[in-house]
């Protein structure tokens, strides 16, 4: 990695991740290249290699940042002095994910390849952010869902987190997909990220 001041390294890395995020609004993962990312930054493509070795590492950093943003909302919910019922907790968590469409979009990708093509230290950093999400989610359940056993909390955590991988494809359907669903005569009910998340959580929490 490039040996500069911590501030310079952080600024350059942030600019690269921001460029990737900008492109990801209109382009697919497979179409985004290091060259495309370099075209959006203030420095050349070869400079990117001083900070990230692969496109997957840049996406992993974007992914980590999305978890950090979600963690901030979960932390705020956990720190609240307000009393919440289980139904209200389902509402609150659904609203936090409603704001994190990009996180859900990244979750719907092939995470195996992204992680496999990233250096271990970057993967550890990402897993730290992910692990914090698990911990905050678990703590929220323990705080607001009185009477729930540790085993019940763990069951919900390890049902809900894998479930999150499928939210985006069901909520964000393209016109092409809608046409295919219509032509295939599939009885598909369109729901928002909030609706899908809330409906899942409320059933898990009320068991």
Give a verbal description of the structure.
With 207 residues, the protein is mainly alpha-helical. It has 2 domains: 1-52, Arc Repressor Mutant, subunit A (Orthogonal Bundle); 56-205, Tetracycline Repressor, domain 2. Helix content is 71%, strand content 0%. The protein has helices spanning 6-24, 34-40, 45-48, 55-79, 86-98, 101-107, 111-116, 120-144, 150-163, 167-171, 175-183, 193-205.
Mean pLDDT over all positions: 95
CATH topology of the largest domain: Tetracycline Repressor, domain 2
Give helix and strand order, one letter per element, not per position.
HHHHHHHHHHHH
CATH architecture of the largest domain: Orthogonal Bundle
Count of separate structural domains = 2
Poorly predicted parts: none
**Strand residue percentage:** under 5%
Summarize the amount of helix as a percent range.
Answer: over 70%
Globally, the shape reads globular
The CATH homologous superfamily of the largest domain corresponds to Tetracycline Repressor, domain 2
CATH class of the largest domain: Mainly Alpha
Radius of gyration based on Cα positions: 19 Å
